[in-house]
Amino acid sequence: MALHEIPPAMFRGPLTWLLLVRQAPINIGKSSDRAWMTVILERETELILGQDISLVPSNAVAGKLLRQTLKHPLAGPARRPTVVVVESKELGDLVSGELGLEVRVSATPLVEGDRFFAEMKRFIASGGLEAREGDEDF
User: Fold this and answer.
1) What are the two backbone dihedrals, phi and then psi, of residue 94, each rounded to the nearest 5 degrees?
2) How far apart are the C-alpha atoms of 135 and 131, rounded to whole Å?
3) Which residues have CB under 8 Å from 133's CB, separation 6+?
């Protein structure tokens, strides 16, 4: 759903955020090592609210990203989720303990996360990350 298609009232309703820490389909430099990506997706709006890329998986990075996203999401107004769904108990303990948010730990990988990373892989495979002339910082 595009941001302009979302009714403003939806941002005030009960919202579920998915906090994912997974290996991304992105190689580090020219090596075969893959980066780790922390992503916050909003289930109801299908928006990406936060993202971070790192060399190793880190619950500390995920906690920091969640704190930043609560204040400054990548899309839409600042808001607080009703529940945060995570894929590991350790991350769930961090989120509920430090931020006081209701947390649900999924026993299986989240379908939305599978879809997100599959789409990212398709985008990259189609040349979506190819550097163009003039993109020196890329």
Assistant:
1) -65, -50
2) 6
3) none
Q: Are 28 and 96 in contact (CB under 8 A)?
A: no
Go through 93-123 and write b for each residue having 16 or more CB atoms within 10 A of its CB, e for each that does not. Answer: ebbbeeeebebebeeeebebbeebbeebeee
Smallest Cα–Cα separation from 17: which of 60, 90, 68? 68
User: CB within 8 A of 119, min separation 6: which ones?
Assistant: none
Q: How many CB atoms lie within 10 A of CB 126?
A: 9
Of 114 and 12, the structure prediction assigns the larger pLDDT to 114
Q: What is the DSSP letter of 82?
A: S
pTM of the full predicted structure? 0.84
Q: How many CB atoms lie within 10 A of CB 83?
A: 14
The phi and psi torsions of 112 (rounded to 5 degrees) equal -60, -35
Instruction: Kindly state the tokens that stand for 46.
Output: 């299908």
Predicted confidence at residue 29, as pLDDT, reads: 77
Which 3 state secondary structure label does DSSP give 37?
strand
